[in-house]
Amino acid sequence: MNILIKNGRVIDPSQNIDGYKDVLIKGRKIQGLYTKGKAPDAGKIIDASNCIVIPGLVDMHTHLREPGFEYKETIKTGTMAAVKGGFTTVCCMPNTKPVNDTIAVTEFILERSLKEGSCSVYPIGAITISQKSEALTELEAMIKAGCIAFSDDGMPVTNSVMMRRALEYSKIFKVPIISHCEDLNLSEGGVMNEGFVSTIVGLQGIPKAAEETMVARDLSLCELTGGRLHIAHVSTEGSVKLIRNAKSRGINVTAETCPHYFSLTDEAVISYDTNLKVNPPIRTAHDVEAIKEGLKDGTIDVIATDHAPHHIDDKNKEFDAAAFGISGLETAFALSLHLVEQGTMDLNQLIMKISITPSKIMGINKGTLSIDADADITIINPENKFIVDPSKFASKGKNSPFNKWQLKGTVEKTVSMGKVFEWK
Amino acid sequence: MIKSKHLLGIKELSAKEIYHILDTASGFKDVLKRDIKKVPPLRGKSVVSLFFEPSTRTKTSFALAAKRLSADFVNFSVSTSSVIKGETIQDTALTIQSLGADFMIVRHASSGVPHLLSNILEMSVINAGDGANEHPTQALLDLFTILAHKKRIEGLTVSIIGDIAHSRVAKSNIYALTKLGANVRVICPPTLMPAEIEKLGVDVFHSTDKGVKNCDVVMTLRLQLERQSKGFLPSLEEYFNLYGLTSERLKLAKDDAIVMHPGPMNRGVEIESAVADGPQSVILEQVTNGIAVRMAVLYLLAGVKK
Amino acid sequence: MSKEILDSNDINRAIRRMAHEIIEKNKGTENLCLVGIQKGGVVLAGRLASQIESIEAGPIEVGALDITFYRDDLNTKEEQPVVKRTDVPFTITGKTVVLVDDVLFTGRSIRAAMDALTDFGRPAYIQLAVLIDRGHRELPIRADYAGKNIPTSFDDLVEVVLEEDNSKNRAVLISGQ
Ligand SMILES: [Zn+2]
């Protein structure tokens, strides 16, 4: 049955389109965009009045937790949370149990997501076996099985030689190496940003240098090897500067940040709310400004969620003992849309950073509404206000520091591979 | 008047509230001088201590304070209870509340635990030390002791020497002293100085000689001996050479300066015995005053409308 | 609505009479001491003492007693407790202690004062002197010496002003309605 999305403002920067058009979907593919009234009849009509119709969002940094931590999240609930948040594609990090360092795990994830998933799932393989920074995984085999990038996320690649080898070896396949930048010696014992607020609340800080020293190392290694480096979850002004400088020197690096790094400051931790505990930590107002500046001038290419769902028991603890992470899929777009409101970027740029560019970096055919592309479409009412209520999240992880926040921009419908998801 | 039924930290108190506690403590100090050192206002109330870190002295001080107010005091022993079997701290606290206790005196190695508990408990929570955050009753008894000798806080210069970064005693004293108008100096090696501490309105010194010059009060802090193995210090000897409070160094302070220490002391590490036992030392008085101050805290919190 | 119930002359007369009664009842001032209850009783105890001294010649010991810690209404009162000075710089054991307060009402303050007093020692006798007895007792307590009995309703307020400057002294009844 064909589906026609009518009366919406279609914005697709991949084709330089911004205007009122009707989108026709046939099966799992986009049939075409039509000027108003010119589309052929369809079996199902979706009225997108007052909405923007954009390429489905692509999250290149998601923790789906399955296999191994199904009590925190499953592929089923995680992808449900994704479509609820407007994401039609998620790239899932390998720090599961077992770690996604063999084709068996990759195949399991893909099988599971085909069977139970609501959106497209692309696995990210581990760089090193068991994420131990000791030996490389079999990149070729894992790529054949379906991995599209490699990362030891959750853990940094502590061994510099191993990182060098990864950046070198991955050049065969032109896949990105995604680096979680953290010097574990510098961050040891830390639970929040190191600064005035950590002094006030008496929690051990993680200095910005813990991130920046490894960003600097990886940029050097990227320059040395000519590899394809992507820096995950940039949180500090210093990292932004290092990446900006590297890009200006032509180094082949891309970078992402997450909504919490431009929406929150460490002052919130005065409440000791463990939902604010995330790694890297929420930084200062100064860093927030630098992150926004980095997004604006293109230093930061991508907004990713770093969706890290946790069971309430893992958060309902003393701050030191609580787990790191934020359940982010279902608030990411509205928090990002606020940047448009603030004038940090326009809608086009936002869609680039949260759909088109991550697709390009990951080398997947997503992030476009062009003819014959996958029918991945997100319909958003950008003016509609809502109150964040984690208890209503589709994700098992209710760990959101944005609880009770009023945000603007509701996901009205998500079309994933031609399948329509809607909520009321 | 006291606004909250919980005492989480000095941060949360106003100068007026601090003075009110200290005034009330003088009343209890008088009680403690009598033959019958007991008064009845908390009759029928019970006070439970929940200490996740060992501390005999603070616990004993609270126990005596409670008993002299005619309250019952029970220690919930963490090492023999279910806490070690993985019960959450919230469940432990709610259990104690269900047993009918009115006050919980809590100490924990993790900052924010008293705040966490105060959010879920009806009973009064008193912070007896949380991580590197605060130890409010210690600061109150320190203020009380200073007042007894100096008759004022405003305008005094107080030098705090030691592991400022890990010291909740230092933090609570910094808040308390600056709120009441004292000039506070913090003296320690840069490895033990917390980030951006100067924003709290204190003067930072790395030289002890310069830091104690002309001060009215010298407060030395206990150095956790494991700081050495963690690379904060090359050796305890070098720490003593640079930051130990010796008779020589004390001469740089005002002639009538008093010497304080929250205890327990590492003699020969942060303080020389001659100073600890010398005429300017008020260290044992601090301990005595601790009971009066904790009586005042328990008594006043009991009077806050629930 | 407030009305003066005693002026400064009335108060002086009452104090004089009570002083005589105390001396008479105790057959002198030997072994006698006065303890004023904070706050209103302290000044009154001082005034009574000087009156007694002027009649009998020879000093009489006077103390001040704060009963805040002995009150039974810590949790029920709207305002929070403010501790005042307790100063009993002499032994009370074996003595006749005259507790002094400005107004006798429910009797609860006196009960608290007796509890407090016995924590200082074991007096041979405790007697009670009040300037005004306004009734409404809730405990079996009565004054040995009362300056004046004044009928009131329970919600009324009785305020006694006692200062160094005698001319300003007065007692006022503020109607509860
Ligand atoms: Zn990460």
Molecular structure report:
The complex is a heterotrimer of chains A (424), B (306) and C (177). Chain A has 424 residues and is an alpha/beta fold. Chain A is 31% helix and 24% strand. In chain A, the strands form three sheets. In chain A, strands 1, 2, 3, 4, 5, 16, 17 and 18 form an eight-stranded mixed beta sheet that branches. In chain B, the strands form two sheets. Chain B has a five-stranded parallel beta sheet with strand order 7-6-5-8-9. In chain B, strands 2-1-3-4 form a four-stranded parallel beta sheet, with helices on both faces. Chain B has 306 residues and is α/β, with parallel strands linked by helices. Chain C has one domain: 3-Layer(aba) Sandwich (Rossmann fold), CATH 3.40.50.2020. In chain C, the strands form two sheets. In chain C, strands 3-2-4-5-6 form a five-stranded parallel beta sheet, with helices on both faces. Chain C has a three-stranded antiparallel beta sheet with strand order 1-8-7. In chain C, helix 1 (8-25) crosses helix 2. Helices cover 26% and strands 28% of the residues of chain C. At the B-C interface, helix 1 and helix 11 of B face loops of C. The structure holds zinc ion (ZN). Residues 153-154, 180, 232-233 of chain A line the site of zinc ion. Zinc ion (ZN) is lined by residues 153-154, 180, 232-233 of chain A.
Of all protein chain pairs, which has the greatest interface, and how many residues does each chain bring to it?
B-C, 25 and 22 residues
Proportion in helices of chain B: 25-40%
Query: What's the mean pLDDT score of chain B?
Result: 94
CATH architecture verdict of the largest domain in chain A:
Alpha-Beta Barrel
Shape of chain B: globular
Could you give a short account of the major beta sheet of chain B? 5 strands, parallel
Count of distinct strands of chain B = 9
What Rg of chain B is obtained from the alpha carbons, in whole angstroms?
A: 19 Å
Helical/strand content category of chain B? alpha/beta
Given as residue ranges, the uncertain stretches of chain A (5+ residues, pLDDT < 50) are none
- Report mean pLDDT of chain A, rounded to a whole number: 97
- Describe the sheet with the most strands of chain A: 8 strands, mixed
* Strand content range of chain B: 5-15%
The number of distinct helices of chain A, counting runs of at least 4 residues, comes to 13
Q: Characterize the quaternary organization of these chains.
A: heterotrimer
Q: Give the total of beta strands of chain A.
A: 18
Shape of chain A, please? globular
Bound ions, cofactors and other small molecules, one mention each: zinc ion
Report the total helices of chain B. 11
